[in-house]
Structure formats: structure tokens, C-alpha cells
Amino acid sequence: MDKQSLSAGVGRKNPSQILAGAIMKGQTTERVLLVDDEPLVRKLTSRHLVAAGYVVRVADDGLDAIAKLRGGLPDLIITDIKMPRMSGVELLRVVRKRFPQIPVIAFSGMAADEMPTGVLADAYCDKADSGFEQLLKTMSELTRKPTLRTAPSHVDDNPIQAKCDPDGTYALDCDDCLREFIVPSAPPSEQNEKWAICNHCGKVVRFHVADEDPSP
Fold first, then answer.
1. How many CA atoms lie within 13 A of 177 on its CB side?
2. Per-residue confidence (pLDDT) for residue 36, from 0 to 100
3. Which pLDDT belongs to residue 9?
4. CB–CB of 172/205 below 8 Å?
5. Is residue 26 very low, low, confident or very high in pLDDT (cuts 50, 70, 90)?
6. Could you tell me if 100 and 92 are in contact, meaning their C-beta atoms sit under 8 angstroms apart?
7. How many other β-carbons are positioned within 10 Å of the β-carbon of residue 148?
8. What structural domains does the chain harbor?
9. DSSP state of 200
């Protein structure tokens, strides 16, 4: 990633000049979730997006983005690819399964032909575009022409079935980050339904254990 190019873009052009060709008219009210693990990139990119009229929230990796999505869905997601804890590739898979209606832009310093396989983005923008023209134009195009993918008609909020391992631990699939996590044992309860906190994203996951005797 070229930080010098990003920094140079701020001083070289006024954001209003950049936006003239990217936004049709007036200001937009679209909500954007910007996901990047580098503070400088988040700061400079969000500055341009706010100047364009976008309402911007930031996340520093894929897991933080999932937490932000619990507070409300954006109209567009912009994500880096190489990030700690959860990469942009994995985040895209989660978004495609849970929120297929949200368009996503992969925003990376890698060349398009160097992108990992399985990147399910609607568009790609290069961070080396120091003036942000490409990013703003792509955002405008995606928000003007919404994706044909629709939101799931039904979200299953029922407790999941725990998988009991021979050592007495339980394997659970988090329905937020879509990762599996292990709990040492089912928390004591008078009911068959139990809960645990995903150690990846912090989601409270309700589950039950098949054929378990609920008596104390």
C-alpha cells in the first residue's frame, strides 16, 4: 500500500473538485462502512467520503466490521483485503451469505490480477489512486444502480444444535461471523436451551444439546 500517494492526494486536490465528476448533483446520504486495519487509510479515505456527503462508519478489520453491522446496515461496504483477525476475503463471504443485498468494493493496494481467488466484491479500487476519483466514481455507480441480489426473506433466530465432542466440549457455529468456536462444557441450566459467547466476534449464541437430560 502506498501511504505517500494517499497523503499526497489530500494536499494536491480539493475534495470538491474531485467530487464534481463522481457525484451527479448535490450531496448523497448513503451510509458507508469503511473497513481497513491502517489508521492513516481510514482517516484519509473517510475524510474524502464525508466531504462527498457520505455517512461513514469505520472498522479496523473484518470482525470489527461484523460488530458494526449489528448496529445498523450500511448502503455500501468498502473493505481492504489483507487484515488481521478476519481478512477482507472472509468478510466478503460473510456479507454475501448474510447481507447479499449490500454492494461491496474491495479497496486494496494489490493489483487486480493479484487478488486472492474467491473475492466476492462488486468492484475493485486501487489504493494507489491518490485522488480517490476511481473510488468515488465506483461508489456513485453502485449506489445509483443497486444490486439485483435481495436480502434473505427469513432470518433463523432459533437456537443452534451443538456438536458434542468426545472430550465433553461443544462445537458451535456462530451465525454472525460464521466461524466455529469451542466451549469447554455447556453452562448449567434448568432448560435445554443454553448460551455461549463467540470468542471470535463476541456474539451471544443460543444453542441446545440433543437428548440432554435437563434435570438438575
1. 25
2. 97
3. 45
4. yes
5. very low
6. no
7. 7
8. 3-144 (3.40.50.2300), 160-208 (no CATH)
9. T
